[in-house]
Amino acid sequence: MSEIRIRSKIWFEIEGQPLLGEGRFRLLSAVECAGSINAAAKNLGISYRKAWSQLEDMEQHAPFPLLERRVGGKGGGESQLTAETQELLKNFRLLREQINSAADYYFAEVFPMEE
Amino acid sequence: MSEIRIRSKIWFEIEGQPLLGEGRFRLLSAVECAGSINAAAKNLGISYRKAWSQLEDMEQHAPFPLLERRVGGKGGGESQLTAETQELLKNFRLLREQINSAADYYFAEVFPMEE
DNA sequence: TTATCGATATGCGAAATATGCATAACGGTC
DNA sequence: GACCGTTATGCATATTTCGCATATCGATAA
């Protein structure tokens, strides 16, 4: 019994509904970086439709607006994260890191001396 | 921003392929308890087809046999876990518990006094 | 020796999801 | 007022999941 690795993931829920997981974290990060949903989708290699649907679904359950969107105008429009969303991403990033480290630590205790 | 909870999950991989996660952990536990795939599926409220497919998929990647199966004969047949599978389940159970606790702990540090 | 019975094993169509193409709407800028 | 690139969305297609139906198996009992 070797070559076994542990993986872990975390996500936030609100009233039992999924709010933010790894995939959507990446999407929001990409939006923050790119300044628009469209550019973010291109960067991630997914369709705009898919990105939009995921954001739509998220905002159904989020207790605050995720994005500030602007349609039309200079450049066609843009989207950026609200301050609360930025804070949420920051917390997610930190917790994911901590818990992933904890997983590796506990795993090494249970499966010692692999190869 | 309240009512937010953290959730976490772990799974084992072998050579990058999923080996054991929560759903399959429950399935194997049910098989161990019930003594057959069929009875386990009934207990879990899923179809035998689904249970069998999941086990089939698992055994594709597992480095050791998961089940000892017997077809036909007294009672029609039976299935039980190998000793290695029992050990794997035990480790999974322990690690899941530890990491879940760690998630709650770190979460409380980042999101204090949410009631 | 043969019929029985309940579990394993599996093909295949149906149902549920996910995906993405095509198109409308929008509104600063020139 | 025409243009441009983005947001927004309907809808058809592709992919995955699900489960019904059926074949196979073999110890036991008759």
What does the model show?
Two copies of one chain form a homodimer. The longest helix of chain A has 28 residues, at 83-110. In chain A, the strands form two sheets. Chain A has a two-stranded antiparallel ribbon. A two-stranded antiparallel sheet of chain A has the order 3-4. Helices cover 55% and strands 22% of the residues of chain A. In chain A, helix 1 packs across helix 2, helix 1 packs across helix 4 and helix 2 (37-44) packs across helix 3 (48-61). The N and C termini of chain A lie close together (10 Å). In chain A, strand 1 and strand 2 (17-20) form a beta hairpin. Chain A has a single domain, classed as Winged helix-like DNA-binding domain superfamily/Winged helix DNA-binding domain (Arc Repressor Mutant, subunit A), CATH 1.10.10.10. Chain A is an alpha+beta fold and 115 residues long. Chain A contains four helices and four strands. Chain A binds chain B through residues 1-15, 19, 63-64, 84, 88, 91, 94-95, 98-99, 102-103, 106-107, 110-111, and chain B through 1-15, 19, 63-64, 84, 87-88, 91, 94-95, 98-99, 102-103, 106-107, 110-111. The structure holds a DNA duplex (30 and 30 nucleotides).
